[in-house]
């Protein structure tokens, strides 16, 4: 299983989130997920909001086009990005 899947109208991305880090950054691959360190604590949805904002900025899409579809309270998350023709490999580029 790959860390992303192209679907009709977008892409699903599997994320391994590590909240409470010093800064928000992509670390690399973690199994079949992209590991993302988040500079927000896992309290009151702050880490999830940080993840959505970071992914939107990194992939150059609107925040409204990024949705966490699975794992709201878990480190392993599935994120839906509703942009046709998106190149998810840009997420791993520094």
Account of the protein in words:
The chain has one domain (4-84): 2-Layer Sandwich (Conserved Hypothetical Protein Mth637, Chain: A). Helix content is 15%, strand content 39%. It is built from one helix and six strands. It is globular, with a radius of gyration of 12 Å.
Brief summary:
The protein has one helix at residues 46-59; strands at 4-7, 10-19, 25-30, 33-38, 66-70, 76-81.
- Briefly note the CATH topology name: Conserved Hypothetical Protein Mth637, Chain: A
Give the ordered list of helices and strands.
EEEEHEE
Distance between the termini: 23 Å
Count of alpha and pi helical runs = 1
What attributes characterize this protein structure?
globular; 1 helix; six-stranded mixed sheet; mainly beta; 94 residues; Conserved Hypothetical Protein Mth637, Chain: A
SSE diagram, text form:
Blueprint: E1 4-7, E2 10-19, E3 25-30, E4 33-38, H1 46-59, E5 66-70, E6 76-81
Parallel strand pairs: 2-4
Antiparallel strand pairs: 1-2, 2-6, 3-4, 5-6
């Amino acid at each position: 299983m790959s860390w992303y899947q192209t679907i009709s109208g977008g892409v699903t991305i599997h994320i391994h989130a590590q909240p409470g880090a010093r800064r928000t950054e992509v670390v690399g691959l973690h199994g079949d997920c992209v590991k993302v360190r988040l500079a927000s604590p896992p309290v009151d949805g702050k880490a999830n909001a940080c993840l959505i904002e970071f992914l939107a900025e990194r992939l150059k899409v609107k925040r409204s086009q990024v949705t966490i579809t699975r794992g709201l309270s878990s480190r392993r998350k599935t994120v839906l990005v509703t942009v046709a023709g998106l190149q998810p490999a840009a997420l791993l580029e520094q």
